[in-house]
Amino acid sequence: SQNDPLKVMISGAPASGKGTQCEMIVQKFGLVHISTGDLLRSEVAAGSEIGNQAKEYMNSGRLVPDEVVTAMVIGRLSREDAKEKGWLLDGFPRSFAQAQSLEKMKIRPDVFVALDVPDEILIDRCVGRRLDPETGKIYHIKNFPPETAEIKSRLITRPDDTEEKVKSRLQIYKQNVEAILSTYSDLLKKIDGNRSKDVIFGEICSLLLQVQKEKETRKSGN
Ligand code: AP5
Fold first, then answer.
1. For 61, which of 129, 158, 165, 173 could close a Cys bridge (C-beta 3.0–4.6 Å)?
2. Using one digit for the tens of pLDDT, what is the confidence trace for 34-88?
3. Which residues contact 31 (CB under 8 A, 6 or more apart)?
């Protein structure tokens, strides 16, 4: 509804499918998609102060310092569109400190979606991933090849998508995940992310519709 819109966090290991699901969630629910990876990549591309601070960390697959990312996210969440339409936070919080910063500000989601995918599948998904710099769309050389030769010719590979860097990103993810999940244990919904993207989306969709309904019921005092 308009004055109490949906607030969603989506998490999961590198290449678990967060960005892919977010494209579909945004289309259906009209939430403001806040992806820290995408925001940071555009800061790097623009050569901004934040981008210059973040670049080396990202290229080597390490986390960007908490202060830099947290300030960026809080700034984005406080904008009018996010308050009006609701938000879908993707890739944040990624450390205990980041989660605590949001908790202190009383910023909590209605639901915390965690995509679960086995390690060996994640590596293949990262190494085969390609991005369309014009539309921002996510492809995969085997799973989701581009529709036309023109799109194919402009696809790019992320500098942190080599097998070696994916392994270290995954390790960093595993070091942080428990502390984050424990912060949101009351809101946690685990989803099996090792299925077709439409099946996964179907499950996320019914989950979000249910959460939306519960919010409305609470508000009307039933
Ligand atoms: P970020 O961009 O968030 O990277 P990530 O978490 O590693 O996640 P990915 O973007 O790699 O994967 P995804 O889950 O979105 O998967 P996708 O849908 O693309 O962060 C990048 C860097 O920024 C970090 O390493 C860090 O340096 C920095 N950063 C970001 N946030 C930060 C924070 N909070 N604090 C500090 N630093 C931060 O899918 C992957 C591939 O699989 C695609 O090719 C896709 O087509 C394919 N695919 C998707 N779904 C399926 C499916 N169901 N079946 C088969 N293939 C599929």
1. 165
2. 999 999 999 999 999 999 999 999 999 999 999 999 999 999 999 999 999 999 9
3. 5, 6, 8, 25, 85, 86, 87, 88
